């Protein structure tokens, strides 16, 4: 393999600097001592079942391995990073979970390089498999994508694990990238992650989070801009079952002019104590003139005993923008949709199935990776069997 390519120049970290005071954003630090053990009363932890994440929040926990498998075109280089090199490239930890992960690598930090102007003919597939929850695993990954590259990256999680991790994606000017995280954890897995995206000038970036497994999953996702003209589209789908906690926290820092962002997450809940959390925050700094942003979260409750928390936030420091908005909703099946379908001879269970498929289909298609879209629709159908029974044929998506 060739040597790693030069990463885009390190620039802004997703932090709140001195000109902004906000309870939504703790002070970033590599030092675990700067991130006290959460009590659950803090703003960034108040929706999280802290006790379930204790294995990932405690210093000195026994560290376990997690199996890695990477399939990638030959232009892609995977290498190891020392601790100092990782700190020079990675996003600064924003909370205790990410600081613990940064300080407790189970195995050496990894760096994945995609050269400038590369047009990959296949996705970079990264499979992570947990081998048990008796111990905790921690890891840090930096992905450097060169200027004007074209790439798709798919990260899949399976098996049982307690996993704390940090990912940093540094995306060079003019690159076009799709990044997908697919969570198919076993029912006992606990997963906490900090994921940062640094977008170069005139980049086009699409991200997707698909969460269908695990006992407790908390994903903190942040994005910032290294120059004007970048376009970011963040998608998400999730399905929370009985006793399951799924939490997605998103922060978009519009710190450059003429940048765009769209956030659209949709989730279904079924079963007693199924719990989903979506926190969407957009900060529009004084320098971010001419930006356009919108964030949306929709939740569909299928049974009694579920809870969906959705909190959209806008922090606007300049009025010279093209647009800024947000929305969040939680509801049951649309009675009019069910009536329409049943009036045409469709049985109630099948009508409910079609409503759920329709709820997800648009966003799944927009991920833009056919293999992933098909896989997600099958996962959705698997979830629906729990409440609606088996179906012999999957509707086309």
TrEMBL record:
Pfam families: SUFBD_core. InterPro entries: Fe-S_cluster_assembly_SufBD, SUF_FeS_clus_asmbl_SufBD_core, SUF_FeS_clus_asmbl_SufBD_sf. It comes from the Bacteria. Transmembrane segments: none annotated. SUPFAM superfamilies: Stabilizer of iron transporter SufD (SSF101960). Residues 134-359 form the SUF system FeS cluster assembly SufBD core domain. GO terms for biological process: iron-sulfur cluster assembly. This is FeS cluster assembly protein SufD. It comes from Acidipropionibacterium virtanenii.
């Amino acid at each position: 393999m060739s040597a790693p390519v030069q990463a885009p120049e390190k620039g802004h970290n997703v932090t709140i600097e001195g000109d902004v005071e906000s309870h939504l954003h703790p002070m970033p630090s590599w030092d675990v001592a700067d991130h006290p053990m959460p009590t659950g009363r803090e703003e960034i932890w108040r929706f999280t079942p802290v006790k379930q994440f204790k294995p990932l929040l405690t210093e000195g926990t026994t560290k376990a391995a997690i199996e890695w498998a990477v399939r990638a075109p030959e232009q892609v280089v995977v290498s190891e990073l020392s601790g100092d090199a990782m700190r020079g490239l990675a996003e600064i930890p924003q909370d205790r979970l990410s600081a613990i992960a940064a300080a407790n690598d189970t195995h050496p930090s990894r760096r994945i390089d995609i050269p400038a102007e590369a047009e990959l003919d296949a996705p970079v597939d990264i499979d992570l498999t947990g081998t048990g929850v008796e111990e905790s695993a921690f890891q840090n990954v930096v992905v450097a994508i060169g200027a004007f590259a074209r790439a798709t990256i798919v990260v899949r999680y399976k098996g049982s694990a307690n996993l704390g991790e940090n990912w940093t994606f540094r995306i060079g000017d003019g690159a076009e990238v799709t990044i997908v995280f697919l969570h198919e954890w076993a029912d006992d897995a606990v997963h906490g992650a900090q994921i940062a995206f640094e977008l170069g000038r005139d980049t086009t970036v699409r991200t997707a989070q698909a969460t269908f497994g695990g006992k407790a999953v908390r994903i903190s996702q942040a994005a910032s801009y290294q120059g004007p003209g970048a376009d970011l589209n963040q998608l998400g789908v999730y399905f929370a079952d009985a006793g399951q906690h799924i939490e997605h926290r998103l922060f978009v820092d519009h710190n450059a002019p003429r940048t765009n962002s769209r956030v659209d997450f949709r989730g279904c809940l079924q079963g007693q104590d199924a719990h989903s959390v979506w926190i969407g925050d957009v900060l529009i700094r004084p320098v971010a003139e001419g930006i356009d942003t919108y964030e949306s979260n929709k939740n569909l409750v299928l049974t009694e005993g579920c809870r969906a928390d959705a909190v959209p936030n806008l922090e606007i420091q300049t009025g010279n923008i093209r647009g800024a908005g947000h929305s969040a909703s939680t509801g049951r099946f649309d009675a009019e949709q069910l009536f329409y379908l049943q009036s045409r001879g469709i049985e109630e269970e099948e009508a409910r199935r079609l409503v759920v498929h329709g709820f997800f289909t648009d966003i799944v298609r927009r991920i833009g990776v056919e293999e992933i879209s098909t896989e997600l629709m099958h996962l959705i159908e698997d979830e629906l069997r729990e409440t609606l029974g088996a179906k012999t044929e999957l509707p086309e998506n």
